[in-house]
Specification:
mainly beta, 10 Kd Chaperonin, Protein Cpn10, Chain O
Length: 77
């Protein structure tokens, strides 16, 4: 793919979105003293960036911990 500035970006260099299911959420975040609720809920299917979050293993299961801002969108069927 060629950008407007003339650079060529190979497909291998593009970030590929990943998909997963939310298993738990936190309480949200505080912004200027106001509590902002989470927009994702447990069991939501979401799309996130390939390099988003931190991988952890708990009791043999692998999880990805990330900020809500790393989520591109919620998949609705």
């Amino acid at each position: 793919e060629k950008t407007e500035s003339g650079l060529y970006i190979p497909d291998s260099a593009k970030e590929k979105p990943q998909e997963g299911t939310v298993v738990a959420t936190g309480p949200g975040r505080a912004e200027n003293g106001t509590q902002i609720e989470m927009t994702v809920e447990e069991d939501d299917d979401v799309i996130y960036g390939q390099y988003a979050g931190t991988e952890v293993t708990l009791d043999g299961d692998e999880y990805l911990i990330m900020r809500e801002s790393d989520i591109f969108g919620i998949v609705e069927e």
